[in-house]
Amino acid sequence: MALGGPIDIEFTNSDSPRHVAGQKIVAFEICELFALNVPDTIALPVSSGSNASVIWKGLRELRAAGLLDTLPRLYWVQAACDPIARAYRDSAQEVTRVESSETVAYSIGNHDPPSGTRALRAVRETGGAVVYVSENEILDATAAFATETGLCVEPASTVALAGVRTLADVGEVSDDEEVVCVATGTGFKELDHLDAGSDVRTIEREHLEEILASLT
Question: Average pLDDT in the 141-166 region?
Answer without folding.
Answer: 91
